[in-house]
UniProtKB/TrEMBL annotation:
<dbReference type="InterPro" id="IPR000835">
    <property type="entry name" value="HTH_MarR-typ"/>
</dbReference>
<dbReference type="InterPro" id="IPR036390">
    <property type="entry name" value="WH_DNA-bd_sf"/>
</dbReference>
<dbReference type="InterPro" id="IPR036388">
    <property type="entry name" value="WH-like_DNA-bd_sf"/>
</dbReference>
<dbReference type="InterPro" id="IPR051011">
    <property type="entry name" value="Metal_resp_trans_reg"/>
</dbReference>
<feature type="domain" description="HTH arsR-type">
    <location>
        <begin position="27"/>
        <end position="122"/>
    </location>
</feature>
<dbReference type="InterPro" id="IPR011991">
    <property type="entry name" value="ArsR-like_HTH"/>
</dbReference>
<dbReference type="Pfam" id="PF12802">
    <property type="entry name" value="MarR_2"/>
</dbReference>
<keyword id="KW-0805">Transcription regulation</keyword>
<keyword id="KW-0804">Transcription</keyword>
<protein>
    <submittedName>
        <fullName>Helix-turn-helix transcriptional regulator</fullName>
    </submittedName>
</protein>
<dbReference type="InterPro" id="IPR001845">
    <property type="entry name" value="HTH_ArsR_DNA-bd_dom"/>
</dbReference>
<keyword id="KW-0238">DNA-binding</keyword>
Amino acid sequence: MHLVPAERAHRNTIDDHRVCDAIAGIGEPTRVAGWARRFGLLSEPGRLTLLLAVHAAGPISVTDLAIATGMSDTSVSQALRVLRTAGAVEAHRDGRVIRYRLSDPQVHDLLHRLSPCPATTSH
């Protein structure tokens, strides 16, 4: 029971190795908090919809995201501000247009598991 913190070492276990495996699987508290924040971002349908759209088509503008998702430009901008503050997306200026793309590799990997990007088409 080498992974059990001292304040819990007095408790009786049923399977010592399973307790250690569980503690190792949980990992560092900061890592858990980071994933909880990511899942919080994904828990709101509008943000998840935007992330899926950016994942599939990024870099993409607010106007194009609004058309693709059926959301208003204002709603898209507000949600993107939250996603940008959280580090999930980043904005890049392309002349007068600002385009968004994913910036968090873990979010990218998670979205890819939810919905692999289709082959891109040339227009």
